[in-house]
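Issue: copy button drops trailing tokens. Both records pasted manually instead:
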Amino acid sequence: SNTIMNQQEQQQKIEDRYNAQRIINEANDKYSSNKNELENAQMIYQSALLDWVDDAREMENNIATGNSSLEDVAVLKTSIATLWVEYANLNRTANMFKAATEAYEQAVNCPIAGNTGMVWKEYAKYQIERKRPKTAQKIYLRALVGGGESDTVEGGAVSNEKDRNELWEDFLAMVRQIKKDPSLTLEQLREAVDTEHTVKVREERIQAEIDAMSGADQPPSKKQKGMDMSSSSSSTSNAQRQQQQIITAEAVDSVASALIETTKNISPALNAEWLARDGNAQPTRPDPPLFSPSPPKLGDPSGKDLLGTELALKLIRILLNKSPSPSTSGGKDHLCEITGGTILDIVNGCWMMTALKEKEATKSQSALDKKLTGEYEKMESEFDSRLSVAGGALSVVEQMNANDKSHFMAMCNQQRQQLLSLVSSEFRHLLAIQQEILTKAGLPFFNGPTVDASSIRIQANICTFLHSAFYLRNRIGEKAHESMLSAQECRLASQEPVPMPIPKTKSTMYHLPPPPVPVPMPIPTQPIYAGQQPIYASQQPMPGQFPPPPQYP
């Protein structure tokens, strides 16, 4: 009985935490109070959906460990499906029918709610109300037997038997109305679907595989044969340009070798700029870094609050670019095809470089921690041995121990600072490499390595937006992410320009030196290195111990 009560309490907590009606009321209140608040109302739905889908995936992974149950996942799945439907309804209420269709498509492609009958049923109902019975029929078929453009699983997207039966009944009612045949039975409809649609889908897939295998040998179509001379000339010109843009293995190796050679060492001029910026202070890591450990959560997914309207719109259009075009930001020797997906892959790689460097720095810091802790314990043991045989010279031995301890603490601080200076130099080198790579990718505001604080802050904001973009694409899928970017592009293009916020930065040349570390220092009370939280006495670290590094997922 206690177990049942605990399960009921846990389920009630899940229902309270993921209360769809609360999100719906918040969004509706926002929109009903001011019709100009539609974008903010949409944001409420989008933010909740992204977080809840992520939580549902984590719950599914925790079922095996017993930290979650199927009932918990089912409750959250229903809430997510409800939010998708209401999100689409919000766009319908605002007469944004294209946005509503995109919302339904995102719902049926959602990894959590995409197999629930509710979203498919509402999607088909919406198309019927829009007087599009053929589109509604395709939706029913995708849900029941599969065969959509992105569907690779036969048998349909909806697996729950109860949901499938309801969809079949709705499908039958629609077909009866279209055919004006009330005598049509469900068995006849199923048989017709099996013979007309399922077989057709399989034939199309087989033909697609054949076309893919022999695409180069296909004869030209009649339309191609009937082209006039000007079109033929244009095609020849396009073919020549495409031929010039072909990337060979040798070209890739050449560009890679040049990039490696350029970024192998930090240039003397750039190093001199860093030294000038440090002044009399010890070197520190670049602040802010281009990438944070965890994916950023933007207040506005379009990035206009962070970058301004013009730059945000430019980046969104770069990410929506599907037609490869040569990038010449790297000069004559740099000719490559850059698409939005490629840009996100490059940014993802730069983020991984930061993660690996952070892991390497953590390993070095842990090794020094272990070494100094062992030496400290050995020294304390020697101090105890001295005191045990001190006899009448106790005060002299105590003073000797205090002097040795003070010397040891100074040595610890020196070794720590040497390591931190080395780590800082490596992170500066990493920043230069990332700036060079992103310059080659043709991103705005990247023009080779720089130490200018204002430029680095703008670059960090750009990387924050792109970091969020590749994280979202991995979570919701490429198609859904492109739909979201397209909607954001339309909104930004129609809005009044918003300038880029002016960053509040420190001096671009000199930093104040950090406060001196007291010696002796049995318990550190000052930050060990820039960007980390101070260590307080309540944590009881050993001398020489570093603070925990930021955690990368």
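Record 2 (pasted manually too):
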Amino acid sequence: MSDLTVFKTPYNESTTTAAMRNVPRFGHTNDFSSLFTDDDSQVEDYAVGLIFMSAFMMGAFTLWMFLLLIFKCCCRRGGTASFLSGNRFQNPTTAYRIRVIYVNVVLLFIVFTILLVMNGLTNLQDTLQTLSNTNQEVDSVLTDAQTITSSLRKISQSSETIRDVLVQNLGNFCPGDPDLTDKTGFDFDLIATEAVQMLNLLGDFFTNRLVTVEDAIDSTRQTTVQVDEQIEQIEINDWQSLLIIIPNVLIPSFLLVGCTMAWCRVSNVCYDFTLAWLLTPLLILSNIFSIIMCAFIPALAVANADFCSGQNPEEGFVSESPDGTVMNILAAQGFDREDITMSDSTNISDSGFVFEAVRFYISQCKASDPFSFIQDYQGEISLAAVQVTQLKEALNAVTVPTLNLFCDKDFTQFQALVNNMSDNLRILETNAEAALSLVGCDRITPIYNNAVYGGTCTYSIDGITWTFASFLVLAFMGMMMLTFRSSVYEDNVNEELKIGELGENYTRSVDISDDQGIEESGITKTNIDATSTSIEARAEMEETHPAPTAPPIGP
């Protein structure tokens, strides 16, 4: 077959695949092929192992949301941590610290939205594009194979007719002159007998192989159609990426503007209303979507990693690679290597042939070649061509009119059939060469490598992992933005704190023992004493009648 060095592609497991494969399963299996068995207990065991990580993610974020509801219902206004319930900040120091955190959270939210599209969705799109291209290549192979089988089908019908005519003439090639061999020097009965034997071998090939190949082509083409339909349904276009990036950038950007305005003590009723009753609910919906994705995607990522880390102890297979998974899936579906070893080359079972063909290609053509019968078939064609050529040359040497005279029989139609058979054999030789090229390693193995090594175990695992990581950060940062949502509203600092800060500033800026400093500042001790007295009086009043605070805005 072809030069094996052209298409060899070693599989190297990525660190992402290894990390996802090693997530805790708590005693459950990580064998991806378990999903393809008829044993429901194995399928259930694998599925349960997948959901632990998803359940943890969903549980953690659900608990966080539940705590926010508790804060909303139970935190009293005016308390130190009342901002957790959506109330305005009461303490300027706390407001400053929380807003610093809030600004960084918003910026990280925007950054990971961009990373989600650039590294997550882009890799997933590359996966779909790779699978689509691979599917087109497979379809091209099937088209070529169908062309060959159609040609073989026509030739087989013609060859059967010629073979039947030759069989009718065996032993009675020249009934009018039994001594034809002595007169012409050609044993036409022997030549025809040998030609019939070779045509019988070709006929067996048509009978046993052609129908199997045609069925395999039809089945594979149905699979390619289904794959195309699935790819079209989950195709990720630019506009779908925009649906994610636009709201996840605009919403936090407006919230960041609100935070900046509150920081600068700038307030606008309409803008506050928009933040409270439009943007915050949209942020909640966006966050719920991110949390759902955080719970759903880990199962896909782990399953993808399991597929790319299958175990196969056979020689010629890479340990912990998708090759092992593919072979294990075939075994789970009932395809067994023993099917081919128990059959001869002319009566091979369909399942055995499929198993050996797949095993041959995914081992980078190191395993036994299941298409060696094509080379045998090519040899049979060559021998048949020799026999038919001898018969043709004998007919031409003796000439048809002479045979008609000696044998008292018309050989015109017979000669036409022999010439037709000679042409058919040349076509068969061409088809045999095309078939060898069609199933060659340099034609099929790159298709497998691109689809499995490239699409499924490189672009896909990277894309799913980046998507999961990005949604995890978006969900976490979104929950932080909801927790610290008071950062976008102006502070509600009570008069006690304002007067206390004023008196403290006066005390820090003026040394009351320094008369010159007091005179320069224009503040007298009487003013300071009056301020202190006013603070004490207001404190007593707040204890008896707490000062009203502004109600929280929005949810």
